[in-house]
Design a protein that fits this description.
The complex is a heterodimer of chains A (251) and B (224). With 251 residues, chain A is α+β, with helices and mostly antiparallel strands. Chain A is 35% helix and 14% strand. Chain A folds into 2 domains: 107 residues, Roll (Ubiquitin-like (UB roll)), CATH 3.10.20.30; 116 residues, Fumarate Reductase Iron-sulfur Protein, Chain B, domain 2 (Orthogonal Bundle), CATH 1.10.1060.10. Chain A has 8 helices and 7 strands, in the order ββαβββββααααααα. Chain A is elongated. Chain B is mostly helical and 224 residues long. Chain B contains 10 helices and no strands. In chain B, α2 packs across α4. Classes of the chains: A alpha+beta (251), B mainly alpha (224).
């Protein structure tokens, strides 16, 4: 068994959206092999054993693809290690004696539910506004029936890597959702299947984004730096381009 | 035209206004700097050029009105965006990691912009007003050149202009490539070139404009 590391944790506790929140300090001794979520599980086990209320946080797949987990660790959404989700953040990345601040994603459109859980349904309303394509059902089409160059397919799949976790909004000084919306617009705009609704889609999704209360883009690119999937800001440029074009060509 | 104002008031629309007005203002700055650099060629050259502009005053006035509109749009939209973005994100994290994920230039656009805005008011109320409506020195020196000579002999005015011009460089460092990104003009081949041009513009503007008050202040010490 490896040596454990000692950490001082300041974890955000808040009963509800309108209650006053504050950091609660925990001194823990944790295995470097544990992920940060496993560490929280351990703390919660102890809290429950003592009859106290466990820390509320979200997680699902715990393998970095569902986008459910999302904590801000020392000012970084998903922690200080680039291109990985919170669930993949292992405690070996921290030094013995270090102090960590663990907070929820902070943004007005992400209303806090409890402790480290926020309501990201603003993303759902954006997706419902235009994050779909139309196609005929029936028997499954043959693979590669529609020729798409490898280069374009790569770009579309890179955009489709977005797991909708909300780290871009959490990292942005304006709480802008443009990296998320840019990725969702791009994954369809790049492919033939996405063309029928292309300009309609960007218009509807941008309206939904503004209505949900997300900010605008100052092009600081903090979103790209913090994104667990490394989604490129060139997707924002594509969305802007399509939005401008839809403004000029829509009837 | 309802569709246009509706589109331009969206989050992306407002940024498009920022980008387009910003790019046009950079064009103005380039012309302004070229004009100012004539100061280094000599008093005659500078004076002659001002006289040439005086000769086409009606056209200059039209351009000035266009510039005033550009500035007004740029500033009005910036303040609106700033207010909305503050509303979208009022809370700060306990640990500020912003220096690790973004540049200081991009994060300080509001501060540098407001500084330049305040400077603009002062600059118009002093130099622009004196050039257009003020009393010109009549001691035999080239009058327009002499106005600048006299103003920058004051170390406080010279220092103020120097500092604000460096701030302008900070603003432009982010502004140029940011405008291209907002317009969607991004391409793996050209974006690196745009970034380099933006940095060059920022440095040339800052050094070009900031050197003038320093030059005149040091010259004034020489007892000219």
């Amino acid at each position: 068994m490896d040596e454990k590391i000692n950490l001082t944790l300041n974890i955000w506790r808040q009963e509800s959206a309108n209650a006053k929140g504050d950091f609660e300090q925990f001194k823990v001794s944790v295995s470097p092999h544990a992920s940060i979520l496993e560490m929280l599980d351990e703390i919660n086990n102890n809290l429950e054993r003592e009859g106290k209320i466990p820390i509320a946080f979200e997680s699902d797949c715990r393998e970095g693809i569902c986008g459910t987990c999302g904590l801000v660790v020392n000012g970084h959404p998903h922690g200080p290690i680039p291109k990985q989700a919170t669930c993949q953040l292992h405690m070996r990345n921290f030094k013995d004696g270090e102090t960590l601040y663990i907070e929820p994603f902070r943004a007005t459109p992400f209303k806090l539910i409890k402790d480290l859980i926020v309501d990201r349904s603003g993303f759902d309303s954006i997706q419902q506004a235009g994050g779909y394509i139309s196609f005929n059902t029936g028997s499954a089409p043959d693979a590669n029936n529609i020729p798409i160059s490898k280069q374009i397919a790569n770009l579309a799949l890179d955009a489709a890597e977005c797991i909708g976790c909300g780290a871009c909004v959490a990292a942005c000084k304006n709480s802008s959702a443009m990296l998320f919306v840019g990725a969702k617009v791009s994954q369809f705009a790049l492919l033939p299947q996405g063309q029928p609704e292309r300009y309609d889609r960007v218009e509807k999704m941008v309206i939904a984004m503004d209505e949900a209360g997300f900010g605008s883009c100052t092009n600081t690119y903090a979103c790209e730096a913090e994104c667990p999937k490394g989604i490129s800001v060139s997707n924002i440029a594509r969305m802007n381009r399509d939005y401008l074009k839809s403004t000029l060509i829509s009837k | 035209m309802g569709w246009l104002s509706e589109r331009l008031s969206s989050s992306i629309g407002k940024k498009i206004i920022m980008a387009l007005t910003g790019l046009l203002l950079i064009l103005f700055l380039i012309i302004h700097l070229l004009n100012n650099l004539l100061l280094y060629v000599g008093p005659e050259m500078f004076n002659e050029n001002v006289a040439r502009l005086e000769a086409i005053k009606p056209l200059v006035r039209v351009i000035e009105i266009a510039l005033a509109l550009l500035f007004a749009l740029h500033i009005f939209n910036a303040l609106k965006l700033w207010y909305e973005n503050k509303k979208a994100n009022p809370n700060k994290y306990a640990v500020d990691a912003s220096s690790e994920n973004s540049t200081v230039f991009s994060r300080s656009m509001v501060i540098t912009g407001v500084t330049i805005g305040i400077f603009l008011v002062i600059h118009l109320a002093t130099f622009w007003r004196t050039f257009n409506f003020g009393a010109h020195p009549t001691d035999g020196r080239h009058p327009f050149y002499a106005i600048i000579q006299d103003a920058f002999a004051n170390p406080f005015i010279a220092l103020f202009y120097f500092i604000v011009m460096i701030v302008l460089g900070f603003h432009l460092k982010h502004a140029f490539q940011s405008a291209f990104q907002t317009m969607g003009w991004r391409h793996p081949k050209y974006t690196p070139i745009v970034e380099k041009i933006g940095t060059a513009i920022a440095i040339i503007m800052a050094v070009g404009f900031a050197s003038i008050p320093i030059f005149f202040y040091i010259s004034s010490l020489g007892g000219k």
